Amino acid sequence: MTNYKDIAEALERRLFELTGLVAEIDSELRSSLSADWEEQATQLEGQDALEGIEKSKLQEIRQIRAALQRIAEGSYGVCVRCGEDIDPKRLRALPTATTCISCAGP
Known about the structure:
By secondary structure, the chain is an all-alpha fold. It contains 4 helices and no strands. Helices cover 69% and strands 0% of the residues. α1 (5-30) runs antiparallel to α2. Residues 10-71 form the DnaK suppressor protein-like N-terminal domain.
């Protein structure tokens, strides 16, 4: 079994960072709107953008948690499609990868 300690640590750091970012976004989304209608329109547009960013960050959090779970279970680094080992270079570049390069292609 390959030791993925460095990858796990990097994933944990990223997870911590993303969790804080999502909390900041949530706080911003819950802030009250201005009484001025024009300002409200601008704020609502900003909220739409923040919701998109939050959705993306939450997806990354799910992927990181899944990768950490695979590391804990010992199945990390194995392609979910073909069962072959995922190239370590790919895992360093994309630590949440679940497929090898061959299976990830079109």
